[in-house]
Structure formats: structure tokens, C-alpha cells
């Protein structure tokens, strides 16, 4: 490899590394609460509803792209999909307890972007379900 090619390759690697390092890593949403603990309850007292309020802390409008649950017993939704800077939205989670027993921890994610990188926000419901 010639000296000229080596210098060009070094410059290219430095440029790409700088671009990756400057990629968006700052959150665009702030959640007031990331965990909802429903304590202990009978499976007959369900379903459990929890509300997670978030605020757009970006300088740009933020689009909520998806609210994703990983369990059929947990339904999640967000009515407002586009938040202006400083604007708030509420993510609703509803956990069906009829088939649950023992300690529970159910996670879900909110995917959002202000036009840059897609940011993932992890939230969860936790507690104990009795089969009395």
C-alpha cells in the first residue's frame, strides 16, 4: 500500500468514526415514571391499568413510532403520536390478570424519533398476582 493510500484510508476511518460518535444518543422523551408496581392483588381484581406520562424534551417535534408489548396479556397504546417540544402524552398499559399467578414483571417499549436515530424507552409493570 502506498503512503498516499494509507493517509487517505486513515482520514476516511477518522471521518467515519467521528460521524458515528456524533450520532444522536440524547433521549427525546422523558418519562415521569418507568416502573408501575401494582403491589399484590387477586387475579379477580384485574385488569390493571397503568398510565405513563412522557414529555418531549427534544428541540424538535418527536414522533412516537410504535408502542410494543411482548406479551398477549399486556395491551399498550398511545393516543398522541406527534409531540411538539415540551408537549406531553400518556402511554396506557392494561394487564389482564385472569391467567396470571405469582410474581409478575411485564416490559414494553416506546419507540420514538425526532427525525434522527430511533430511541427506545423501556417501561414495565411489576407486582404479585394471587390465585385465591
Class per helix and strand makeup = mainly beta
CATH topology: Immunoglobulin-like
Give helix and strand order, one letter per element, not per position: HEEEEEEEEE
Give me the count of strands: 9
The CATH homologous superfamily is named Immunoglobulins
As a percent range, the share of helical residues equals 10-25%
Strand arrangement in the largest pleated sheet: 2-9-8-4-6
Q: On the 0-100 scale, what is the average pLDDT? A: 87
The stretches of 5 or more residues where confidence is low (pLDDT under 50) are 12-24
| Tertiary shape | elongated
Number of helices: 1
> How many strands, what sense, and barrel or not for the largest sheet?
5 strands, mixed
Count of structural domains: 1
CATH architecture: Sandwich
CATH class (first level) name: Mainly Beta
Strand content: over 45%
Amino- and carboxy-terminal Cα gap: 75 Å
Molecular structure report:
Helices cover 14% and strands 51% of the residues. It is elongated, with a radius of gyration of 21 Å. With 132 residues, it is mainly beta. It has 1 helix and 9 strands. The N and C termini lie far apart (75 Å). The protein has a single domain (25-130), classed as Immunoglobulins (Immunoglobulin-like).
Give descriptors for this structure:
132 residues, mainly beta, Immunoglobulin-like, five-stranded mixed sheet, four-stranded antiparallel sheet, 9 strands, 51% strand
Structure, briefly:
By secondary structure, the chain is mostly beta strands. 14% of the residues lie in helices and 51% in strands. The chain has one domain (25-130): Immunoglobulin-like (Sandwich).
Amino acid at each position: 500500500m502506498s503512503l498516499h493510500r494509507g493517509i487517505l484510508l486513515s482520514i476516511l476511518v477518522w471521518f467515519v468514526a467521528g460521524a458515528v460518535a456524533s450520532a444522536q444518543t440524547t433521549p427525546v422523551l422523558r418519562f415521569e415514571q418507568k416502573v408501575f408496581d401494582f403491589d399484590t392483588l387477586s387475579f379477580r381484581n384485574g385488569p390493571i391499568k397503568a398510565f405513563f406520562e412522557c414529555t418531549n424534551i427534544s428541540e424538535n417535534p418527536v414522533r412516537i413510532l410504535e408502542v410494543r408489548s411482548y406479551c398477549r396479556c399486556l395491551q399498550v397504546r398511545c393516543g398522541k403520536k406527534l409531540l411538539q417540544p415540551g408537549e406531553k402524552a400518556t402511554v396506557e398499559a392494561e394487564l389482564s390478570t385472569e391467567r396470571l399467578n405469582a410474581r409478575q414483571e411485564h416490559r414494553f417499549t416506546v419507540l420514538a424519533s425526532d427525525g434522527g436515530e430511533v430511541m427506545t424507552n423501556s417501561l414495565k409493570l411489576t407486582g404479585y398476582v394471587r390465585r385465591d
